[in-house]
């Protein structure tokens, strides 16, 4: 039996994580949610199809992104950065560090449907991984 595509959510806002978790499960995704303290360990262990990583959380999301992209076990995993601020400099930095995309909160309702499509593509390697 095929495994469900899996996403890892790392954000320190419990209500946002809960809402993303609920909607992702409704879309047929398996969800791993945790604070930044374990995101590197969880990503290496579970190899999620997409990582959703908040820029501003207990540990700086840019540092976590950099660490994910430097680790051979997680380098190829698609990472989508979330931020409450539409900051051009931070967006560019995240993309240069290897993020696939940068989404500003509150995000469009179609955001998680795009994530689900991306996770399915990554899980089944049916197309090159793209967000749009």
Q: What is the name of the CATH architecture? A: 3-Layer(aba) Sandwich
Into which percentage range does the β-strand content fall?
15-25%
Helix content: 40-55%
**C-alpha end-to-end distance:** 28 Å
- Structural class comes to alpha/beta
CATH topology: Rossmann fold
- How many strands, what sense, and barrel or not for the largest sheet? 5 strands, parallel
DSSP summary: helix tally: 5
CATH level-four homologous superfamily name: Response regulator
CATH C-level class: Alpha Beta
Strand order of the largest sheet: 2-1-3-4-5
Number of strands: 5
Q: How are helices and strands ordered from N to C?
A: EHEHEHEHEH
Shape: globular
Give an account of the 3D structure.
The model has no long low-confidence stretch (mean pLDDT 89). This protein is 42% helix and 18% strand. It has a 5-stranded parallel beta sheet, sandwiched between helices. It is globular. The termini are far apart. The protein has a single domain (6-124), classed as Response regulator (Rossmann fold), CATH 3.40.50. It has 132 residues and is of the alpha/beta class.
């Amino acid at each position: 039996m095929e495994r469900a595509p899996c996403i890892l959510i790392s954000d320190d806002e419990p209500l946002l994580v809960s809402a993303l978790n609920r909607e992702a499960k409704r879309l047929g995704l398996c969800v791993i949610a945790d604070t930044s303290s374990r995101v590197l360990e969880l990503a290496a262990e579970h190899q999620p199809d997409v990582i959703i990583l908040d820029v501003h959380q207990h540990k700086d999301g840019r540092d976590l992104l950099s660490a994910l992209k430097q680790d051979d076990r997680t380098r190829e995993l698609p990472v989508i950065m979330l931020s409450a601020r539409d900051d051009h400099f931070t967006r560019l930095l995240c993309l240069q560090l290897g993020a696939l995309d940068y989404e500003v909160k509150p995000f469009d309702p179609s955001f998680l449907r795009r994530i689900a499509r991306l996770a399915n593509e990554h899980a089944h390697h049916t197309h090159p991984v793209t967000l749009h």
